[in-house]
Amino acid sequence: MRRGSVDLCNSLSVRQILHIDMDAFFASVEQRDDPSLRGKPVLVGGASRRGVVAAASYEARAYGVFSAMPMAEALRRCPQAIVVSPEHGRYGEVSATVFEIFHRYTPLVEPLSIDEAFLDVTGSQGLFGDGEAIAQKIRADVRQEVGLAASAGVAPCKFAAKVASDMAKPDGLFVVGEDVRAFLAPLPIERMWGVGPKTAPLLRRHGFATLGDLAAASPELLERVMGSHGPRAAALARGEDVREVEPGREARSIGAECTHEEDLTDAGAIARALLVHAAKVAERLTEAGLYARGVTVKLKYADFTLLTRQTLLPEPASDTKTLHDACVASLVRFPLAGARVRLTGVSAYGLVEHTANQQRLFPDRAAARRRELERTMSSMKGRFGGGAVTFATLLEAPDDRRGPDDVEDDGAQRNSRITRGAVTWRR
């Protein structure tokens, strides 16, 4: 267990926020369930030429491999790696067990993804001890009952807790004291949220090497270098983070996308790909009992330019036709002449549990039929498999009818981002 350079906060008056993150979650589940994979470099992801790494075991990370890296590049760096296709259902079951453990210690659990969460244990200290003790108990329970390692950060605020858990990896615990600013000050600028490989060199050119530099910068310089994000980033660097842990956070979006084995070069092929995504999104909305107020279409071109277009729906919807119609309507707002599209995606946003149509005296019968059709299709897929029902349009283009490989679901219990190649490996 590692500690910050200041005294631990044991007072009940000091907030105790935990950030708990499962280590290399997908890869660790695969290694747990298949003893032959233990101690070996494992990559979870798609096997196609354009597949992307969804997770890398720590043995693979030693070769410079990381999640979201193209699979081809990962295998160049670590040619001996074992590639395993994701099994999302199994990961979801493991995640549910982990979150049940979290809830034993506090009802204030804010999921960030399928494998990490913030916990506010301030009010639990009388029962279980301080934040450090609770984090130790949770990690021990996860190890014993789930067979996996979890890293944890403990701090008075969310930002510092997240930084601390990153510093604790793998399989560690780091506790930050009350003087959060002193803990953050010497850390490299890359520790700040939103500062990635492109932003960090820019900040360093302006003299920002550490979070302490950022914390002490003038508002004018921050505005000039970082824009509107600057003041907020400086406040976080000073340890000024009053955000509450938000339990039961509603889903922000549900989506699906895939990187295609060959670039799409005409609007018809793109529209068919969007139909596959829209159907998957509609299925997930139906399963969750949610409706979308709007639809976002995402296209990534061969030169890696990424464009998105949003369409607000006349009223919340959850059926494939409505979602796909909105997608097709938005295509005219993309530059497609001569374009080569490598990735397509669809996501539903503005999610609600009820539609205006449900409150009407005379509901829209066509909309009701579409929802009923969606429920029927979902039921048939559940009984007979995902390929049991499809759209006639997709039968004309066998290469396009394979399901979307990247599922993005920012819901409270299902917040995951997994990218796979266009061809699914079957075990």
Write structural notes for this entry:
This protein is an alpha+beta fold and 427 residues long. Among the domains are: 183-237, 5' to 3' exonuclease, C-terminal subdomain (DNA polymerase, domain 1); 253-411, Dna Ligase, domain 1 (2-Layer Sandwich). Helix content is 39%, strand content 22%. It has 17 helices and 15 strands. The protein has helices at 25-33, 58-61, 71-77, 88-105, 125-128, 131-146, 158-168, 180-184, 199-205, 211-216, 219-226, 229-237, 267-288, 320-331, 356-359, 365-384, 392-395; strands spanning 2-3, 17-22, 42-45, 53-56, 82-84, 109-113, 116-120, 150-155, 173-175, 253-264, 291-301, 306-317, 341-352, 406-409, 416-418. The strands form 3 sheets. The chain has a 6-stranded mixed beta sheet. It has a 6-stranded antiparallel beta sheet with strand order 12-11-13-10-14-15, covered by helices on one side. The protein has a 3-stranded mixed beta sheet with strand order 4-3-5. Strand 11 (291-301) and strand 12 form a beta hairpin. Helix 13 crosses helix 16.
Task: Give the helix/strand layout.
Elements lengths: L1 E2 L13 E6 L2 H9 L8 E4 L7 E4 L1 H4 L9 H7 L4 E3 L3 H18 L3 E5 L2 E5 L4 H4 L2 H16 L3 E6 L2 H11 L4 E3 L4 H5 L14 H7 L5 H6 L2 H8 L2 H9 L15 E12 L2 H22 L2 E11 L4 E12 L2 H12 L9 E12 L3 H4 L5 H20 L7 H4 L10 E4 L6 E3 L9
Parallel strand pairs: 1-9, 3-5, 8-9
Antiparallel strand pairs: 2-7, 2-8, 3-4, 6-7, 10-13, 10-14, 11-12, 11-13, 14-15
